[in-house]
């Protein structure tokens, strides 16, 4: 009886919002009826609801102007057909065919807020198969398949739209269960709820384009298979022993190991060539504890107590399928820290909540006012207040089987964000008071995840990843569809933005206790114009033809980083090297991230003509494999621009100030050395600046040679002689038969390790792992306008050098960098 | 001129004190826990010339040369010209035709706390320093440069003339052991 009630209830829900019309069947139609069992319902549905409300603790979420209609005519009904059968095993089977239908919402408000989240439209057609039957335990189980096609989703704010076009979606659930036996005692009282189980929920999706104002940013598609259990309870986020309305979820998700699991972003060249970013062959798990939804006075509140997850992507491609970047693994735990008032919460507000301009730093205030000009309290959009606390994360990068782990990643903070669609086809994202911090304990290298933490995270500086940072950021970004003109209008992204960091501390080289080299009291003012992102193929980067990669063109950018103190030791009490100010101004710089590392290299010599060894007797040959990553950078440092009074408005300048003391004018100042107005050009004696300063970094994780630097016992208590090589012990072999390194090591005569013998080869396979970087820096001409000295009590600096001209540099490095204790 | 250079160098390191020391492993054990990084490899300058040799055809014939590693052409290396006079009225001090390869094993970078030693100064200092562990051996392969005076910054400038003072070519190994410690001395 319970099951029948539930089935009737479900049917009631599925049809309760519909309007039916019964139509007379013609004789010709009736003549086709051959006495089949079951029931067919043809439904024409035109639904208009002025206001649909959900009330939670007296707060109301209102869905206004809810409409279901035909796509072709919003005043006409949409047609769908239900075919119902009862199968031999007692299952109710229902097939639904939905003809082109439009679902539309005029706006969503909370407690009649003056602004709404904007209007939403979903066009779709679908075929769905659904079967359900009672279980012996008194619950329900069944299976489900659906295919949605020709779908389009549109979000519109203040009359401007962003859309996902041509969506295709296919999903199936081998078996689902719906039970009433879930219990929860997290509020110190027992509550029962609904348990939903899904076994092998597999789906694929594709979008023809993500469009802004009719122009594509690119296409997104993917496949995923997972199994999940979810428990749903009445009552939202509340204190212990307090019953409030709302919803609570607990969920356990397993992403099933399947080589077909993938997400693909595709961007098209001017000639129609598709270029893709692919992350595939992934698996993982996610446990969500106490995920709650509540409607509050002026916002929708979402939060969770804890999310623990693991994720592995076995295949990452950037454009070029012949050179995979490698694979990544991520383990993380987002968890509330009540003692330190750090939570994981998201508050969604209808409309645009503008920041308080009057308390913003003056460096960004004007940009912020301009960004929000034309918007008011009734403007549509989405505002968010976010808090996060990442208690711990471990990120592994695996390159040709060699693993490096970025260990002990922690972060917490909060931010206010607004998102809306603007005229001129812009997606506008404003972030204010992004206040928080992150830190990385260090690196682990090798095959053993339990290896001790080592230093060396400063190696990430080459990728502009800092080891730790405390930050307070205001930033305003406008995104438009379409990348660089040279890649056509098939996709890509263009960004313009203004950002200001204040009260910022940057850990440049620190240990897990936060001791090391810090840039403290940093303010960082950054402005970006016409920055384009494209996934492209067959393009030239730094005079080299690239088969495929991620290409970033930086039209114009200028910034000022003012480091109040460069400290050694603690970030508060460490001794200071002084103040450093770095001003930058670049035009038409670029960056490309290209799959594949260095490949074959000869350290200390030159590669031979066949590329499989060193030329002559000099050097050490290494084949670093196909995987890895290449970062290719061009910095075109522009000539300075001055105002009428001769003050530099934008330019490149490095200032180091030290010995700061209170001066007669009352200010704290010191002596400065100034590298003024440095810039690049093409060395032709004119202003051509196409070559810039170019840097190519081929990055691999590879075995490294570490020699003992003196006789005796080292910091780890291991004895050895000067010049002997550090070799790890072996604790097993991997699936390919390669040795797995342990945590213990010994020092061995380097001649034995280097010998071309089986023993030598076996020892070399147990060398420490580290980053192997093949770098090249070149420029045609790099000028420094003047090198100056400035006494704190004089207005004009004294010039030391009236110019430095550097030309024709081509510097190549082959460096291996190994974290050490 | 010499005064200016000395002043410049002094200013760069004005708030740094440096000490070279050979540190035993036993002493290393007293280092308070910080990790670091061990660097090995090579640095090569203009092995096959620079970018102006590759695409310099439009800039007169000055840089248009074939620059294989064994080439002795004077326009295959990098060039640094410094105007240490009074601007437009003075000539340029030039380091020209800079080429060669430096190879090393075991340059280490780390921070460590100094709270003892140094004839009692360590207790007083009691702060962190940047430790550059020198590589045992640095190999020089075909490292060369020329010191010169020049009338103009660029060899392509109108009226360019240059007088070479001397040229240097270095091949061989240099042994460097011990640590270079950088002491920040600014007020916390």
Describe the SSE topology:
The complex is a heterodimer of chains A (821) and B (188).
Chain A: H1 2-16, H2 27-31, E1 39-45, E2 47-56, E3 59-70, E4 78-86, E5 92-105, E6 107-110, E7 119-134, E8 140-157, E9 160-184, E10 191-212, E11 215-234, E12 247-255, E13 262-268, E14 274-295, E15 300-304, E16 306-318, E17 326-335, E18 344-350, H3 362-372, E19 382-399, E20 402-422, E21 426-445, E22 468-481, E23 493-510, E24 516-541, E25 544-563, E26 565-569, E27 575-576, E28 579-595, E29 600-603, E30 620-623, E31 629-635, E32 641-642, E33 648-650, E34 653-662, E35 668-681, E36 693-703, E37 712-713, E38 719-720, E39 725-733, E40 739-748, H4 750-754, H5 758-764, E41 769-790, E42 798-801, E43 803-820
Chain B: H1 2-12, E1 16-21, H2 25-28, E2 36-45, H3 51-55, E3 78-83, E4 92-114, H4 121-125, E5 127-133, E6 137-150, E7 162-175, E8 179-184
């Amino acid at each position: 009886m319970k099951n029948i009630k539930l089935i009737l209830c479900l049917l009631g829900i599925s049809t309760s919002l519909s309007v039916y019309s019964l139509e007379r069947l013609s004789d010709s139609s009736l003549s086709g009826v051959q006495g089949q069992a079951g029931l067919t319902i043809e439904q024409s549905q035109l639904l208009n609801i002025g206001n649909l409300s959900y009330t939670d603790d007296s707060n109301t979420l209102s869905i206004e102007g809810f409409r279901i209609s035909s796509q072709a005519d919003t005043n006409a009904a949409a047609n769908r057909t239900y075919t119902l059968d009862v199968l031999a095993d007692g299952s109710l089977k229902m097939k639904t065919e939905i003809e082109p239908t439009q679902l539309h919402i005029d706006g969503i408000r909370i407690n009649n807020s003056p602004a709404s989240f904007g209007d939403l439209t979903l066009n779709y057609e679908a075929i769905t198969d659904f079967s359900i039957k009672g279980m012996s335990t008194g619950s329900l189980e069944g299976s489900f398949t659906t295919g949605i096609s020709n779908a389009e989703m549109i979000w519109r704010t203040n009359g401007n739209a962003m859309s996902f076009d041509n969506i295709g979606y296919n999903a199936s659930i081998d078996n689902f269960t719906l039970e009433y036996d879930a219990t929860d005692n997290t509020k110190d009282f027992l509550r029962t709820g609904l348990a939903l189980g899904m076994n092998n929920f597999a789906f694929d999706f594709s979008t023809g384009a993500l469009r802004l104002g009719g122009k594509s940013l690119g296409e997104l598609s993917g496949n995923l298979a997972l199994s999940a259990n979810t428990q749903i309870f009445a009552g939202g986020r509340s204190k212990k022993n307090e019953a409030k309305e709302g919803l609570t979820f607990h969920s356990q998700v397993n992403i099933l190991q399947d080589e077909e699991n993938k997400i693909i972003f595709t961007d098209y060249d001017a000639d129609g060539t598709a270029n893709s970013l692919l992350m595939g062959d992934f698996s993982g798990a996610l446990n969500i504890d106490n995920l709650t939804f509540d409607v509050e006075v002026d916002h929708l509140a979402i939060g969770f107590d804890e999310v623990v997850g693991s994720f592995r992507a076995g295949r990452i491609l950037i454009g070029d399928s012949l050179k995979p970047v490698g694979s990544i693994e991520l383990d993380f735990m987002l968890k509330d820290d009540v003692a330190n008032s750090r939570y994981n919460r998201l508050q969604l507000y209808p409309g645009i909540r503008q920041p308080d301009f009057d308390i913003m730093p003056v460096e960004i205030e004007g940009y912020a006012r301009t960004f929000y000009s034309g918007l008011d309290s009734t403007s549509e959009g989405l505002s968010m207040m976010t808090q996060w606390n990442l208690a711990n994360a471990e990120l592994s990068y695996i390159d040709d089987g060699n693993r490096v782990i970025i260990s002990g990643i922690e972060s917490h903070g909060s931010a206010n964000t607004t998102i809306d669609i603007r005229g001129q086809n812009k997606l506008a994202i404003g972030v204010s008071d992004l206040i928080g911090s992150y830190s990385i304990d260090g690196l682990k290298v090798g095959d053993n995840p339990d290896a001790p933490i080592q230093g060396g995270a400063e190696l990430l500086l080459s990728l502009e990843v800092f080891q730790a940072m405390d930050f307070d950021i205001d930033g305003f970004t406008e995104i438009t569809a379409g990348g660089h003109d040279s890649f056509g209008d098939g996709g890509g992204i263009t960004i313009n933005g203004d950002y200001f960091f204040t009260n910022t501390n940057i850990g440049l080289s620190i240990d897990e206790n936060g001791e090391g080299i810090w840039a403290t009291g940093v303010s960082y003012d950054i402005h970006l114009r016409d920055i384009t992102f494209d996934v492209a193929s067959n393009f030239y980067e730094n005079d080299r033809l690239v088969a495929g990669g991620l290409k970033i063109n930086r039209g114009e950018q200028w910034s000022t980083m003012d480091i109040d103190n460069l400290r050694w030791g603690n970030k508060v009490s460490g001794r200071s090297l002084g103040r450093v100010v770095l001003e930058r101004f670049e035009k038409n710089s670029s960056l490309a991230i290209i799959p594949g590392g260095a490949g074959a290299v000869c350290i200390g010599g030159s590669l031979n003509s066949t590329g499989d060894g060193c030329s002559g007797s000099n050097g050490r040959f290494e084949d670093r494999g196909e995987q890895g990553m290449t970062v290719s950078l061009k910095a075109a440092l522009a000539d300075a621009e001055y105002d009428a009074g001769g003050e530099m408005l934008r330019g490149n300048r490095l200032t180091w100030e030290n010995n700061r003391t209170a001066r007669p004018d009352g200010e704290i100042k010191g002596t400065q050395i100034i590298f003024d107005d440095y810039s690049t050009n093409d060395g032709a004696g004119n202003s051509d600046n196409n070559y810039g300063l170019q840097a190519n970094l081929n990055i691999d994780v590879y075995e490294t040679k570490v020699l003992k630097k003196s006789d005796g016992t080292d910091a780890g208590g291991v004895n050895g002689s000067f010049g002997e090589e550090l070799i790890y012990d072996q604790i097993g072999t991997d699936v390919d038969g390669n040795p797995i390194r342990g945590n213990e090591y010994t020092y061995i005569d380097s001649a034995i390790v280097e010998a071309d013998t089986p023993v030598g080869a076996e020892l070399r396979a147990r060398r420490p792992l580290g980053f192997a970087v093949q770098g090249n820096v070149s420029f045609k001409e790099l000028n420094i306008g003047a090198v100056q000295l400035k006494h704190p009590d004089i207005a004009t600096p004294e010039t030391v050098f009236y110019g430095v001209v550097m030309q024709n540099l081509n510097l190549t490095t082959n460096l291996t960098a190994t974290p050490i204790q | 001129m010499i005064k200016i250079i000395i002043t410049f160098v002094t200013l760069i390191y004005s708030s740094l004190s440096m000490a070279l020391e050979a540190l035993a492993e036993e002493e290393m054990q007293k280092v308070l826990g910080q990790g670091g990084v061990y660097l090995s490899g090579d640095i090569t300058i203009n092995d096959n010339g620079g970018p102006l040799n590759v695409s310099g055809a439009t800039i007169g014939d000055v840089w248009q040369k074939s620059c294989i590693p064994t080439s002795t052409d004077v326009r295959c290396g990098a060039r640094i010209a410094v105007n240490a006079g009074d601007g437009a009225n003075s000539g340029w001090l030039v380091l020209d035709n800079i080429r060669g390869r430096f190879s090393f094993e075991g340059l280490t970078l780390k921070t460590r706390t100094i709270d003892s030693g140094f004839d009692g100064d360590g207790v007083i200092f009691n702060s962190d320093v940047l430790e550059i562990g020198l590589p045992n051996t640095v190999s020089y392969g075909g490292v060369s440069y020329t010191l010169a005076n020049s009338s103009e910054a660029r060899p392509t400038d109108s009226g360019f003339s240059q007088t070479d003072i001397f040229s240097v070519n270095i091949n061989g190994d240099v042994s460097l052991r011990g640590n270079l410690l950088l002491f920040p001395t600014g007020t916390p």
